[in-house]
# Entry
Amino acid sequence: MDIEEPPLVKVIAALPALVLHAKADYSDPSWTTKPGGYDSEYFFGKRFFGTWNRDHRTMLLLARLPMIGLTLLLGLSLYWMARQFAGPWGAVVTLALFVSSPFFLAYGSIVHTDVPIAFFSIWTMWFFASLCREPSYRNALWFAGSLAGALLTKFSGAFLLPSILLAWCWFRYLEWRGAKGQGQGSLAGKKSFRREGLALGAMVLAGLCVYVFYLGTFYHSDPRAILENEMSSMVGVHTLPVDILVRRMNNHAWLEPLLLSPSLYAGGLAYVVGHGRRPMYFLGQWHPQGVWFYFPVISFFKLAPGMIFVILLLPFLAMKRLLSRRDQGSVVPDSVRFHLGAVLAGLIVFTAIAMTSNLNVGIRHFSVPITFTVLLSSLVIPMTRSVGVPGARRLLIAVTSGLVVSSLGTALLTYPHYLSYFNIFRLNTAKQEIAQNSNLSWGQSMEEVAAFFREHGVSDPYVDDGASNIDPTVYVPGAHVWNCDRPDPTAPEWVAISTYMLIRQKPECFDLERYPSWAIGGGAVEIIHIANPTAVDSKPR
# Structure
């Protein structure tokens, strides 16, 4: 029903539902209507949590456990990789920044694809470097598995292909520059052919894994019904590759199960590319589409200050090394020089694509560059140790330690509102005036909204439909749905509104700010007491 992402993470998250014997009405129109269209998944999902299954807390917890497991594995992976780059203290810096980051604490605990794609991406680039340095079937299999996992997690996993190409070009440059047959960076002759042959074979194997997984996932499904639903969701999107495959299927029925997998994958890629342009509210104004500076700016406001300053230390220390006349050698051991090049290649490609794209809806889409950067932060330690002046070296070590400790303090002070976190650099600017969507509110504060109404004895609460994606009564007993920008004839007395509706440019509900209000969920939701409900009715809109 959802063609925006491949199915792997969704299948993993759904497995715990089998333990609870979750119920679903497959006679519901949201499932049976052909084609269902883009909205079917939302109707089906709302009824799944709001009507067919009432124990949503346990179900959500179990669904999130595999995601939390992947996030913990990512943290362990970063520690292990950073230890090889920069030793134990460099690994401590990386791990501390990871575990204290509001970004990973927020998005690593929910069912989504952004942290998993970072996990598979960093392993893909790492094992590609391992394969290039030591061509073996073992490294080729690890590389193939990591790449397949990335391609099955998020369509942006396809960006790993140009990342791999860039890394390969860098390795070939090192080979050309080095003396033939000398040093560990030189991979000449038969070893080079073996390396590239294994890499190509691993990529073919990864593609085959993607094909087989799609085939198994949709084995019991009607190919025509699925493709009709996909095509109905892609109105206004260039779908030539999908059209060609569908025509082949129509002419040859026996090809239906064989061509379903490439059709769905091609359609998903086309959908993501075609829907990359959408209006966005950023830095106090509406933009018809994304802007190139979105991700650097939103990272500046959403990441912990300690992490930001540690990251800024990297180019400063790197420039100092370049300007130094002393021969300081490589910043990392020779055994992982290729791995450093692969990580840098991935960082460059994913950052460049993100900044040139028009899809600027949340910092979560920047998860791969953020993860690569956290790993590279470990290099602050070896670069600091190479500083020649003892006093400056001690000062840099003290500054780095202070920044890491401050990041841990940020995590403690922010708890539990990690998703709506904005750092102190915003000063007095309202969070919703900087950025919205999943940067601020994603329906995560409904338990707090329910507690507020309960503690204040509100018997007839209203919830704006932007505050929750499902029926608010699932969380707030007796709640009514209300649209603050399209109010009903009878205005409520108490209402919960997502703060992204309280902006200064239309469409907005900013005029409601004149009433008494309480911030909930770290500023994600505001509870407003409309002292004179008729004032809302009489105001022209």
About this structure: The longest strand covers residues 494-498. The beta strands are 280-282, 285-287, 462-464, 480-482, 494-498, 517-520, 525-529.
